Structure formats: C-alpha cells, structure tokens
Amino acid sequence: MNESATLAQSDDDQRPLSDLDSLIGYNLKRAYMIAQADFRKALDEDQLGPRDFSALLLVAQFPEITQSRLARMLGIERSGLVAIVDALENRGLLKRTHVEGDRRVQALVATPKGQTAYVKALGLVRDHEEKLFSVLTDQERDTLVSLLHKIRALETD
Amino acid sequence: MNESATLAQSDDDQRPLSDLDSLIGYNLKRAYMIAQADFRKALDEDQLGPRDFSALLLVAQFPEITQSRLARMLGIERSGLVAIVDALENRGLLKRTHVEGDRRVQALVATPKGQTAYVKALGLVRDHEEKLFSVLTDQERDTLVSLLHKIRALETD
Asked: Which of A5, B17, B26, B133 shows the smallest number of beta carbons within 10 Å?
C-alpha cells in the first residue's frame, strides 16, 4: 500500500486509517478520552471529578469498606486514595468510621448528603452515557461491556 | 439488593460488581489502564512513550504530514505536540521539512532511523497485544475494535 497516496486520497477525511487504528490499546485510549471528556461535562455542576465519583460510589454501595479494599477496587495506590477520601470527607460526603467489632480497622461510610450526591451523580452520568453511546445499539453496548470485563479480569491486585 | 451483603458474600473475590462496572466509560478507563501499563512494558527498552510512539508512527506512515494534521489525528492540542516533535527530532527519528511546492508549510518526515524505530516498536506492541488480549478470540478482538471505532467516530476535530 502506498501510504502517502492513502493520505492524499483522504484529504476530506481527517481520519485516514493508520496502523494505530488497528491496535486495541490505542482504540481503548481514544474511546476512553471521549468518554472522559463527556463524563466531565456530565458532572461539571457537581464538581465531582472521575476519581471522586468512583470512590464515593463504591463507599455508598459498600458501607464500611476499608481504604485498602477501596484502593484495590479502584485500581489505585492506597497513598493516592488518601487525598480523595480527605476531599470527600471535607465536603461532608463520607466519614471515617470503624468496622463493627474491630475498632482498629478504619472504614468508610457515605453520609446522607453523600448518598444523595452519589444517586444524583450516577443519574447524570447514566444520562450522558445514554446520549453519548447512542451510536451503539443496546446489544452492542452489552457486547462492549462484556468484552471490556474480560480485559479487566486481567487486572492484578 | 442489599449491597452490604453483596460485599460480604464476595470476601474471596476482590471485584464485587458495583454500579461502576455497568458504566461504559468506567470500563473503558480500566481496560485502557491495563493496556497502557502493558504498552509501557512493551516499549521499555526503546524509551518510547505512548505519545512518542503514536506520533512517530503517523509521521512514518504519512510522510510530509503537517503538524496541525498530526495533532488532529492524535486528538491533542498543537501546542502539546511541539514538545513531542522536538524530542523525536532531537533523537534523530524525524526531521522538519517543507511541503513540496509550498515552502511556507512545514511538514514532518521520518528519518531512516525513525522508520526502523517505528517498525521495531510496532512489532513489539503487536506482540504484547497478542499476548495481553489472548483472553479474547480473534472475532472478539475484531468486534471490540469495530465498536471502539464507532465511538471514536464521535471525535470532534
């Protein structure tokens, strides 16, 4: 294939195909960037960043989750989680508590304000995804999520 | 659903399902993070970061590409591209030239060293992807890339 020719032929198309477009990793990156930008628009009013959102959601869904477990579920370092938890606590969205029966283990619970914020934010994000991914049929979305779950099963703890 | 119970029941499994796991954007993010980490391992020896790799690949594939066009294809700001192009030029992998017939327009071409580096790096990345994504069948990979292309078609220039 004459690749110069490929570019010349597609002067009206900003996206001539390159080797990059066949790489799964690169396609994941670009699709993620689109989703990320849309996500930020969805939650602009709430000033809840992607990491805050994910952390709050898990704490709200799994009361008394430990910070170690939360970090593991988020796939981030525990040290990186501390700032997120501090910020959410300062905003009154969650509080540090202790695991029932073992006061040495610190755990996290969402406050009522945090629960409300979580439900609202999740609704906004779902609405945005519904619009953004309307290029895919319901079945295609299910397929995509299922394939991505297979990749995520490669995550190492 | 009693979500505390969900967590308790899955004590041996670090990945109980949460609302996050149903969000396409979040799944894209996590799958991308896995691919990104693997990519960095693939190219460790070459010290070619993901952005350098993508830029070099496109310059090698599309000789005399302009910086504006390259930035557009990479989905990044032109200002962000300058540092990448400078670094690649300093390493002797590409050079700035002029579009034939219009000396006012600056364009980029890969040097022979850059062509060699691109072919080698692409081979390493493909080998890594082959191993990493062996959890998916060939057909599943094709499906995944095709679905991601549909999402990428949402990109705005």
From this structure: A5
